[in-house]
Predict the structure of Delta(3)-Delta(2)-enoyl-CoA isomerase.
Amino acid sequence: MCTLEKRGDIFYLTLTGSDEHRLSPTLIASLLAALEEAASQSSRGSVLVTTSAGKFFSNGFDLAWAQSAGSPAGAQQRLHQMVDAFQPVVAALISLPMPTIAAVQGHAAAAGLLLALSHDYVLMRRDRGVLYMSEVDIGLTLPEYFGAVVRAKVSSAAARRDVLLRGRKVRGEEAVAMGIVEGAHDDEDGVAGAGGQLAEELAGRRWDGEVYAEIRKGLYPELCGVLGLATKAIATPRL
């Protein structure tokens, strides 16, 4: 599950517990509800920081739950259910009316990595944890919106190739060099501190959240098309 806590202008969305934070239908629904709550309570200067407890940021979809369906057809149906349920979470992050930061305290794999990449900024540890898109290794194709997120957020074609087609497990300093994350920090406290500091800096700009969201959507027209997100013009100048 997850919790949402507001401290001043900053929302802290935390994946709780010490497990792998597998994206089951229950956790996906909890994330979506938290994002909707943050959006409803947002005001000028709001920022979201997403983090986790334990060794994992998120190890992707709950494949054990899918396989527990008892048949290949049932497992595939459950996997499709999670893929479909997770797309609105990505859409909610891309359209959230505030800056977003993923403070990745541990491993982020497959849909867990996609969750991180759906934020504006990604910070991670250099001493522990990897970013990993496991689909090529386990024999799963990418949903359309997965590819669209990676194309939007990872600018280097070589980095996209290594992450998606080689299944490369990327650590902190490598992720910075590849342009996947904003920064790598020494330990859990370092990531949390950097995330909080960046959040305070962004909150201090006191941006209009709706305008911010529309500018963000304008940066990623292909991704917004895949997600079904429309853009609109807003004029609320502060002169």
Summary: The chain has a mean pLDDT of 95.
